[in-house]
Write a structure and sequence with these properties.
Number of domains: 2
Strand content: 25-35%
Number of helices: 8
Order of helices and strands: EEHEEEEHEEEEHHEHEHEEHH
Helix content: 25-40%
Distance between the termini: 58 Å
Structural class: alpha+beta
Strand order of the largest sheet: 7-8-9-12-13-14
Radius of gyration: 20 Å
Largest sheet: 6 strands, mixed
Length: 281
């Protein structure tokens, strides 16, 4: 069994035995997207990073939202929220849909004769990392006798989890988007890993959120647990909760909302400013 801090690379478990890792790394495929991994290095865009899940503390933490697409379970688990869906209707999954308030990762659509009869919005959120996972990735490959740069494996740079900013950002986004869905009498679902939802419940006001998901609520939380077996990891639905737009506002606390948004905007700007963006006269 691997002692690496990587749990999954290019959708393959590092605990898997007798895998042809050289081919896996060369192909750079994401089985959840059925295409090349789209997480690439800024300095080498032709190289896909491929890190799906990492070990952090006692958890295997998912750091790529596409990891949540395993077997399309997350969409199947939202079918009951298509209250106008009928037998005979087709089901479609449409990605990156712009709506008032932002963009939705996926829309699950019930359609008949190419006419939309109902839909539910689905947002995916995984943990954002701080630092870099790259040296850990390269050390794992080196342990498999795959040639990598010594400068990468010798690097002392490490990674962490940006729990607070990840949770803040998604709550602000939900606050903007849920009003649109509520106005249309439709549902919006946030899909997260169980450890992230547990953090959100501890750090924000969640006592009013229904622990038993109600079909009448517009905002639903679906948390998934990553389960390990002898050779692989699998996602399983762990918990469902629900609320409405007022409930999302209460999660953040209306007083703090402006500060949260400002904090997110400042962090975004700070991550983008560089010598390339410098305005000189």
């Amino acid at each position: 069994m691997s002692s690496s801090k990587l749990s999954e690379l290019f959708t393959v478990s590092t605990i898997s035995e007798e895998k042809n890792w050289k081919t896996i790394v060369e192909n750079q495929q994401c089985s959840f997207l059925n295409r090349k991994c789209i997480k690439s290095r800024k300095s080498q865009p032709e190289i896909s990073i491929g890190t799906c899940t990492v070990k952090y503390g006692t958890n295997d933490v998912i750091i790529c939202p596409h990891r949540l697409l395993e077997n399309r379970k997350i969409f199947i688990d939202c079918i009951h929220l298509l209250t106008l869906h009928e037998p005979g209707n087709e089901l479609h999954v449409v990605s990156e849909v712009s709506i008032p308030g932002g963009s939705i990762d996926y829309i699950l659509v019930s359609a008949k004769d190419n006419k939309v009869k109902d839909f539910v919005g689905i947002e995916l959120q995984t943990l954002d990392t701080t630092g870099t996972v790259w040296p850990e990735r390269q050390r794992f490959l080196k342990s498999l006798n795959i040639p990598v740069s010594d400068s990468d494996t010798d690097s002392i740079k490490s990674f962490g989890m940006n729990w607070k900013m990840t949770a803040k950002t998604i709550l602000v986004q939900l606050h903007h988007k849920i009003e649109t869905f509520e106005h249309l009498s439709k549902h919006l679902v946030l899909v997260v890993q169980d450890c992230l939802l547990e953090y959100m419940q501890k750090e924000f006001s969640f006592s009013h959120i229904s622990k038993t998901a109600k079909i009448g609520d517009s905002m639903h939380f679906h948390s998934y647990r990553l389960k390990e077996n002898d050779t692989n990891y699998h996602l399983g639905l762990h918990e469902r909760m629900s609320t409405d737009s007022a409930g999302i506002s209460k999660c953040m606390g209306l007083q703090a909302e402006a500060n949260i948004e400002l904090d997110i905007i400042l962090k975004t700007l700070e991550s983008k400013i560089s010598l390339k963006t410098l305005l000189t006269i």
